[in-house]
Design brief:
heterodimer, A: mainly alpha, MetI-like fold, globular, B: alpha/beta, seven-stranded mixed β-sheet, four-stranded antiparallel β-sheet, membrane (chain A)
Chain lengths: 297, 265
């Protein structure tokens, strides 16, 4: 075979593989949106869920999902940032560090049910925290950390070494250089990692069933005191998220409109994730610009 | 290639106004020795070129002078004497050393900041807060690096939008904004086109009035064009050090003659 036809065959194969991926994606997303959007209304978004009657909404579940993502990121991002910086810039090249890297990878592939049960036993039962958003956030942190750490490490490593050299040659310390030169340049990559991990948090159900619970107590959105039991900001209250709600409505829902609710909620979940992505990219661009006066590549 | 005797060398004794001196400087990468007992006196307010084939140790030697070789298993033995102090001692604050001995690299490496931000970033971190002082440094360093006229109207634009030659002159400006005594240049024009190279050489000739410059170059013509003194290195050994005129017109060593006439390297 001549090089030309080899190339043509390879290109055709690659293109059709990409086609399969795109077709699957389009099919799935459009199916969810087409079946879900008709059930989506302002009323659906803004009213609390019902246990027995039709006409329940997803207001609290939607808020819980977003709140959980934010809480989880608040806990996991600083830890992952520290670990990522260490692995990228300070870790010596030896077998201990290699073992740590391998363990991080193993941790990221743990089944979420196992992590959920672990968090249930440790936090909910042993420490008597009870079903709460904070227990859920800690459970999600456990498998969010490896992904985020790895991503931050890679993003920092992808900043060319001569940036570091340039700053060191000006008499700056390594730490100053990392925080003020390397980290800002790595922001676009880190934002991508945050988006990927938040997508996983939004969609997670198994680990949350045992930790943040399956009930959505009535929330008072006017109560901004995070220590008050009915405040929407209280991290110690049980909180059913959107993904858990979809699972519950589908498996044991007894409301007459269970199907409509789960389709609608699925569509909302997808839209929220998409919106979150845009929002995160937007914030990332702003931050990158603020720190660097440069355009995002 | 013929065998040369690396134990013989010719090093001219320079005694006028020494800016920097190394005494038996040897650099080791792990167990591998990269330079062998290099003793050299660099005269003040002049340009000294380090020439030699790839692997001759000239960049390694240069990077030891402001202690940029300090990572992992690199080990630098010998003395580097600057203003009467051995700055290779572990007691000496390496960050302070680098304020006095600046460096420009082969690959232009401006920070992803504005043109002004590139100059002021290090200054601010070294505690200069006065806006007037910062602005003065920006203007004077960009003027000295001969890039002021090209950038004065868009100091707040990203430095990444500059051309390669402009970036490199910005890096020179960034280094001299620290008001160092000595500038180390590691093949500063090897990634640039001839026009930009010419401009940088012109800049260096201006700069030597106020700074001591040590430049590593692959380009033999460049060494003969810009430098006052030339050191020829081979396989980690300093084999000849003389004023540039003598090196290029009447080298003492056979190997120097062979290198500058293009027989190897």
């Amino acid at each position: 075979m001549n090089p030309k036809s080899v190339n043509r065959i390879a290109t055709t194969v690659i293109n059709s593989l990409v086609g399969v991926v795109v077709a699957l994606l389009v099919l799935l997303i459009s199916y969810i949106l087409v079946t879900g959007l008709p059930h989506m209304s302002l009323d659906f978004l803004l009213s609390p869920s019902q246990s027995y009657q039709a006409g329940g909404g997803i207001r609290d579940q939607l808020f819980n999902s977003i709140y959980l993502v934010i809480l989880t990121l608040i806990i996991s991002f600083p830890i992952a940032l520290g670990a990522g910086i260490y692995l990228a810039e300070y870790a010596p090249k030896n077998w201990i560090v290699d073992v740590i890297r391998t363990l991080i990878e193993v941790l990221s592939s743990l089944p979420s049910v196992v992590v959920g049960l672990f968090a249930y036993l440790v936090f909910v039962i042993k420490f008597q925290v009870g079903f709460s958003i904070i227990s859920g956030a800690v459970a999600l942190t456990i498998f969010n950390l490896p992904l985020l750490t790895r991503n931050i490490e890679d993003s920092i490593k992808s900043v060319p070494d001569f940036q570091m050299q340039g700053a060191l040659a000006l008499g700056l310390s390594k730490w100053t250089t990392i925080i003020k030169i390397i980290f800002p340049s790595a922001i676009p990559g880190i934002i991508t990692g945050i988006i990927l991990s938040s997508g996983r948090i939004f969609g997670e159900a198994a680990a949350l069933i045992y930790t943040s619970g399956q009930s959505a107590p009535v929330l008072n959105y006017a109560n901004w005191n995070p220590f008050s039991p009915d405040s929407f900001l209280n991290p110690m209250r049980p909180a059913e998220t959107l993904a858990v709600h979809i699972w519950k409505v589908n498996s044991e829902g007894i409301t007459p409109d269970a199907n409509a609710i789960s389709s609608g909620a699925s569509a909302v979940l997808i839209l929220v994730i998409i919106l979150f992505n845009f929002f995160a990219h937007w914030i990332g661009k702003k931050l990158y610009k603020k720190f660097t006066v440069g355009e995002v590549k | 290639m013929q065998k040369y005797d690396l134990s013989k060398s010719y090093v001219k004794e320079v005694n006028s106004n020494i800016a920097l001196e190394t005494d038996q400087l040897s650099v080791f990468y792990g167990k591998k020795q990269a330079t062998y007992d290099i003793s050299l006196k660099i005269p003040k307010h002049s340009i000294t070129a380090l020439i030699g084939a790839s692997g001759s140790g000239k960049s390694t030697y240069l990077r030891s002078l402001n202690r940029m070789n300090e990572n992992g298993n690199t080990n630098v033995k010998g003395k580097i004497i600057y203003e009467g102090i051995d700055i290779n001692s572990s007691k000496v604050n390496v960050y302070e050393v680098r304020k006095h001995i600046g460096m420009v690299f082969q690959e232009p490496n401006p920070f992803a900041k504005s043109i002004r931000g590139n100059i002021t970033f290090a200054l601010k971190n070294h505690g200069i807060k006065d806006k007037k002082v910062l602005e003065e440094r920006v203007v004077s360093s960009l003027k000295q690096a001969a890039i002021w006229d090209e950038v004065k109207d868009h100091l707040d634009d990203s430095a990444m939008s500059l051309s390669g030659g402009q970036k490199q002159r910005l890096c020179i400006a960034r280094a001299i904004a620290m008001q160092p005594d000595i500038l180390l240049l590691d093949e500063p024009t090897s990634a640039l086109d001839p026009v930009s190279t010419g401009k940088i050489e012109e800049t260096l000739r201006e700069l030597k009035k106020n700074y001591t410059i040590i430049i590593v170059t692959h380009n033999i013509q460049q060494a003969s064009r810009v430098s006052d003194y030339t050191a020829f290195m081979h396989s980690g050994h300093l084999l000849e050090y003389n004023d540039t005129n003598s090196i290029f017109n009447n080298p003492e060593m056979q190997i120097t003659n062979d290198y500058i006439s293009g027989h190897f390297g």
